[in-house]
Design a protein that fits this description.
heterodimer, A: 245 residues, mainly alpha, 0% strand, B: 251 residues, alpha/beta, Rossmann fold, six-stranded mixed beta sheet
Amino acid sequence: MNLFYHFGEYLLLLKKTFTKPEHRKIYIKRIFQEAQAIGVESLGIIAIVSVFVGAVTTINTSYQLVASWISDTVIGSIVSDSTILELSPTIATLVLAGKIGSNIATELGTMRISEQIDAMEVMGVNSAGYLILPKIIAALFMVPALIIISMFLSILGGYVVGMYSGVVSPEHFINGAQNSFKVFTFVFAMIKTVTFAFLISSVSSYQGYYTEGGSIEVGRASTKAVVYSSVLILLFDYLLAQLFL
Amino acid sequence: MIEVKGLIKKFGDKEVLKGIDVVFEEGKSNMVIGSSGSGKTVFMKCIVGLFAPESGHILFDGRDYVTMKYGQKKKLHQEIGMLFQNAALFDSMNVEENVAFPLQLHTKMTKGEISKRVDFCLERVNLPGENKKNPDEISGGMRKRVGIARAIALDPKYLFCDEPNSGLDPLTSQVIDKLIKEITIDLKTTSIINTHDMNSVMEYGDHILYLHQGLKQWEGSPDQIRNTNDARLREFIYAAQFTKDTKPVSS
């Protein structure tokens, strides 16, 4: 029952969020502000995670492919395929769920308990639209952009580590990566990323927007935002894979 | 004028407001008093639309808020100004942006016009030149004054203040009370003020509503409240002995 109640409330919040904005210019300005917070400020952590994931994948793959009859190009193809199909869209968005999700829930939760959201409502401002819509739109554009950067950095990390550790030559790595690349894989990765971006921003907003109580509840809302977003990312990862692959 | 008829509000099984009828007149400071937990804040939040009542009617100059459509409610909200207990300033915005916020969203004023209006509102609350400060850089009293400036930015017809004196020293409290009274007279607003401060009730109130356990226990003027025979109300208003009339003990 509790699950249905929350799902219903979540849908009602989305309905309120996607109503016509009061002032389009201000909403556009807010989207750029959120794009900065969600996208640009997450670049550092995504870059670090991606480079290391690519590097470790290269070493793991070379460690497992010990047979002499297997070409070295396979390493490049496995690193690139697994990065594009799974590692970047899923692992990077799980990291983003932690960073963006907790940030959104804490911000909205604090605004709720300090009556800032009430103040907006009394002024006749659609607080859900003003606060949440720009976050969702910014996430829908910025998370895919981050994931594309993550894919590039992850493959680059694999390439550099392969080259310096001697497990694969640069030519073999690039040949393998180029030969295995499929447009559909990339399109599927983008479909997953957009879905995950929506889940992270909307679920975290829901947790923060309906915070009740004090600072402890804000912390709880933040934790719930990360946990629920992460679980939903994994669930939808499976569902989308089942549906498209 | 705001008319409240048969207002009932429940949270779960608990009935917090048990059918309140009252009329708040235009251009008057209507003080709502009552002990903590008597339902003052819930009462105010029901009137401004933050809580939906179980039953009853709230009429803003004859317009029933309870039966209004969403669009009509949003328009009516532009006629409402509210000062929250902790001012509820947007901490991502500076003083100027806080005051400009309702103007940017609800008017077609140019940047220059908004800037002039913000300066006017800040001067009105005696805070000229504080435009660029952030809410965390100003004192509690100043935050309340910025909250008032934001509340009057759209020239409201109805002004709500939830415990405007809480957390303030007596002198700052007086400044805030005086300011609310002046704004009520100047803008002819229907002002509703939730307060525990009996000095401000006696000095600035025109009409007093006393709530007890979700019910209207008493209503009247400051003169009437001084001579009331209601034992519970007398106990409440004289609990704080240090009213303005109290003379210091001579040595």
